[in-house]
User: Which sequence fits this backbone?
């Protein structure tokens, strides 16, 4: 079946511009996660959605970062006034979610490589 | 979530077993032990998880120490495709964020 997809695969932008990164989770997965990964580092948590609501946004670095999931499926990560330090691979993951033990496995997409010049 | 400690790198030969260690001395009684791996230029991939008992699946085995302060991921016969960064992660629930460390870079020699 289809896995988690992310678009675009690569995004190059200029400092100060606005970008949107899209994530299509596995159909039926209620939990959706965003992470970002800098070169040579492990992924760093950004935000977690359970359905349409953000259950944990403690990883968002500042108010330039925002994410939505209006219908409980596709999610968009939005970055305003991009800075060179935002350059990283942005990873999305989904899982069946819930509190019954079915969410142990997170399924990751291939990521979007964001480069801010 | 409690912290884990892993070696920076390990090497193995193809078709030999690999034992990847992880120390988690501050683990709490409800923390699950998860292992993920990340192949080059790909997103992380779930490998296995456990709570107290040893676990086996098609990819690997997870051996958990009796005091739960350490665990070992076992790849029974390494292949070139197993070359990846392996992350040992503790998580208090079955949902919510994963906290990745630096992981162990596994190199498999033909």
Assistant:
């Amino acid at each position: 079946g289809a896995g988690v997809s992310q678009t675009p695969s690569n995004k190059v932008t200029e400092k100060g511009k606005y970008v949107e990164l899209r994530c299509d989770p596995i159909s039926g997965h209620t939990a959706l996660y965003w992470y970002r990964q800098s070169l040579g580092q492990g992924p760093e948590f950004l935000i977690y959605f359970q359905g349409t609501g953000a259950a944990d946004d403690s990883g968002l670095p500042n108010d330039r970062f925002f994410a939505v999931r209006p219908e409980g499926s596709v999610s968009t990560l939005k970055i305003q006034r991009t800075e060179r330090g935002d350059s990283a691979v942005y990873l999305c993951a989904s899982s069946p979610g819930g509190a019954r033990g079915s969410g142990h496995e997170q399924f990751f997409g291939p990521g979007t490589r964001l480069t801010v010049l | 979530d409690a912290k884990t400690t892993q070696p920076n790198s390990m090497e193995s030969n193809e078709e030999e077993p690999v034992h990847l260690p992880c120390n988690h001395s501050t683990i709490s009684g409800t923390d699950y032990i998860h292992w993920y791996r990340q192949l080059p230029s790909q997103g992380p991939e779930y490998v296995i998880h456990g709570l107290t008992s040893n676990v086996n699946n098609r990819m690997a085995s997870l051996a958990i120490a009796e005091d739960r302060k350490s665990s070992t991921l076992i790849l029974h016969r390494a292949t070139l495709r197993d070359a990846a960064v392996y992350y040992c992660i503790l998580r208090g629930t079955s949902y919510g964020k994963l906290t990745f460390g630096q992981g162990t870079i596994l190199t498999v020699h033909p």
In short: The two ends of chain B are 37 Å apart (CA to CA). The mean pLDDT of chain B is 94. The first strand of chain B starts at residue 9 and ends at 13. The interface with chain A takes residues 32, 34, 36, 42-46, 49, 85, 87, 93-103 of chain B (CB under 8 Å).
